[in-house]
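#struct-help
A.M.: can someone run this one for me? Single chain, 140 residues.
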Amino acid sequence: MVRISNLDIIEILLKNSRTSFMEIAKSLGVSETAVRKRIRKMEEEGIIRRYTIDVDEKKLGFDVNAVIGLDTKPENYLSVIGKLKKIKRIRSLYSSSGDHMIMMEVWLKNSEELSKFINELSKIEGVTRVCPAILIEKIR
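D.P.: on it. Structure tokens below:
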């Protein structure tokens, strides 16, 4: 009997979330029913929260993909997070430890738009530092 782990299935889905149950089962040497049950259980347990796509933002006209670190005054942290959550051009938003309190990823049309966005962020009450890094190429 072949034993599969949740991670075996997740690794396949991370490469392509549209991989069929049958394809997963075949590659792992188990039944389609076993895969279906395992995925359903992971969804119910919140291990798999959603399925997504990998987009080439440059083909959509976004030539600047930036990761921005942001720091705030401690008393303004929650209100800044609340404001950032409402900004649609922020693709992902994280609370972090290390160099910055908040990290975000944004897609922008060009460096001029990046400059304007950084200026907007710096005007949010309580923001003390905005540190952008432009991503050149996605390697993996």
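A.M.: thanks! The mean pLDDT is 95.
D.P.: also worth noting: The first strand starts at residue 64 and ends at 72.
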